[in-house]
Amino acid sequence: MRLTVNRRTVVVKAHPLTRLLDVLREECGLTGTKEGCGEGECGACTVLIDGQPVNSCLVPVAHARGTRITTIEGLAGSHPLQRAFVEQGGAQCGICTPGMIMAAAALGPHPTLEEIRTGLAGNLCRCTGYTAIYRSIQRASRR
Amino acid sequence: MQGTLRGRDLLQPRSLADALKMLRNEGPLVPLAGCTDLYVSLNFGTLKATRFLDLWNLDALRGIELRGGALRIGALTTYTEIRRSATIRRRLPMLAAAAREIGGVQIQNRGTIGGNVANASPAGDTLPVLLAADAVVVLRSAAGVRRVPMTSFYTGYRQSVATPEELIVAFEIPPVRGRQWFRKVGTRAAQAIAKIVVAGVQDREPRLAMGSVGPVPLRLWQTERALGSGASLAEAQQTLQREIAPIDDLRSTAEYRRQVAANLVAQFWNSRSGTTPGR
After folding, report:
1. Which of B33, B136, B142, B199 suits a disulfide with B128, CB 3.0-4.6 Å?
2. Are B258 and B217 in the same domain?
3. B5 touches chain A (CB under 8 A)
């Protein structure tokens, strides 16, 4: 099966029901995407499919065929959100961070605080660092 | 993932007709689409089914349109599509309100209204809306089409009148007059599964439906009749207590649910906060 991940074509051998999360981590070696709850509650495994955030633990790889998949690696470490998270203390333990950033990347260019809170309602931070996370996203949107 | 994929098959039909043939000739098959419910049990190793029918790419099952005065919503329509639809916000604002409170954005981007109905959880958030709106479930099989009122769709806990050869393809919703109201009570606005979920239409003949207060989501026929016939709120709340059968479970207790259900009926009846649909 051919997939388009971070603008590159990759060929994977996985069973069509394999979770996209497992294909990304194990076949593509893209371990930036984390597994948290494995049931769509925590958002740690968030990636973008055609620009829309999804929980990759709930997506069979068969449903990703023919789409554009973007993972945290696709932001190349230099995205304004990534820099803002570093500068503003948006990451504590770091497990939720890739998912938070991918959900934030799907928000419009200048989200309001309310839009940020709604857009990230499906992403949980066990360190409860939400204030710094929202601050990071607001700061990035000013760049 | 704790579940295994060994011995599991995914059939991938190219068209709706193809899918219906597979259901007839190669069943039993479990249809899957957004996978937001199914993959939870697959991940945890509690899903027994081994053969699945992939509906996700059947675009004939997507879309929101007005047909002969009725609102028609394809079964594969996602919650994101529902909340963004100007037609739904105008015609059935209580459904847009429900879609906004289901999961987070990630779930809303994949979860479908047909899946919510097929999953048949008594806590499903869109189910009281469809009950209160007098929606009709459109079922198709290789043999033809049949239409079942949502109010007679469920027959018991996670049981419905749909046969294994039938697919839910759409919902048809006649125009709804009066103010629409939706309220979900849970631990948190996003992600939480409802302790109680309620939808209502305030009109001369009010309509009210509730989830998580019985083995199936309930249209509260007697309570709404009491309210519509001029009974006092207290009388209507007593009727409600006879009409619901909540249980203790991991999300709440029967006692709490009875109290909150009564409070919600009062809130529905006294409040002016709902939305009246546009023309």
Report:
1. B199
2. yes
3. yes
Give B-chain residues touching A70 at CB under 8 angstroms: none
CB A24 within 8 A of CB A3: no
In 3D space, the residue among A25, A18, A17 whose CA is nearest the CA of residue A47 turns out to be A25
At residue B272 the predicted structure's pLDDT band, cuts being 50, 70 and 90, is low
Domain count, chain A: 2
Q: Tell me: pLDDT of B229 over 60.
A: yes
> Whose CA is closest to B59, among B102, B13, B24?
B13
| Least confident stretch, A5-19, A50-64, B131-145, B260-274 | B260-274
Among B5, B36, B40, beta carbon nearest to A17? B5
Q: Are residues A17 and A62 in the same domain?
A: yes
| Minimal Cβ distance to A122: which of B2, B42, B107 | B107
Q: What percent of chain B has pLDDT over 90?
A: 86
Q: Is the Cβ pair B10, A43 closer than 8 Å? A: no
Task: Note whether A89 and A134 are same-domain residues.
Answer: yes
Q: State the complex-level ipTM.
A: 0.97
Rounded to an integer, what distance in angstroms lies between the CA atom of residue A44 and that of residue A125?
9
- Once rounded to an integer, what is the mean pLDDT over residues B233-241? 97
Nearest Cβ partner of A63 from B42, B56, B105? B56
Contact B106 A40 (CB under 8 A): yes
Same domain, A57 and A20: yes
Q: Are residues B30 and B121 in the same domain?
A: no
Inter-chain touch A119–B105, beta carbons under 8 Å: yes
Give the global pTM: 0.95
pLDDT digits (tens, 9 = 90+) for A35-44: 999 999 999 9
- The answer on A109 and A119 residing in a single domain is yes
Is A66 found in the same domain as A20? yes
Same domain, yes or no: A68 and A7: yes
| Res. B189: pLDDT tops 80 | no
Q: Do B163 and B184 fall within a single domain? A: no
Q: Name the residue among A41, A55, A121 with its Cβ closest to that of B189.
A: A121
Min Cα–Cα distance to chain A from B41, Å: 8
Note which residues in 68-97 of chain A have CB less than 8 A from chain B.
none
Residue of chain B whose Cα is closest to the Cα of A36? B1
Q: Does B49 touch chain A (CB under 8 A)?
A: no
Helix, strand, or coil here: B76? coil
**Which domain-ending residue is among A73, A90, A108?**
A73
Q: What letter would DSSP give residue B192?
A: P
Q: Which SS3 state, helix, strand or coil, does residue B207 take?
A: strand
Q: Choose the final residue of a domain: A55, A73, A91.
A: A73
CATH classification of the domain holding B42: 3.30.43
CB atoms within 10 A of CB B86: 10
Q: Tens digits of per-residue pLDDT, B117-135?
A: 999 999 999 999 999 999 9
Total domains in the fold of chain B: 3
Residue type, B45: G
Name the residue of chain A whose CA is nearest to B51's CA: A17
Measure the CA–CA gap between B126 and B82, rounded to whole angstroms: 11
Mean pLDDT of B23-40: 96
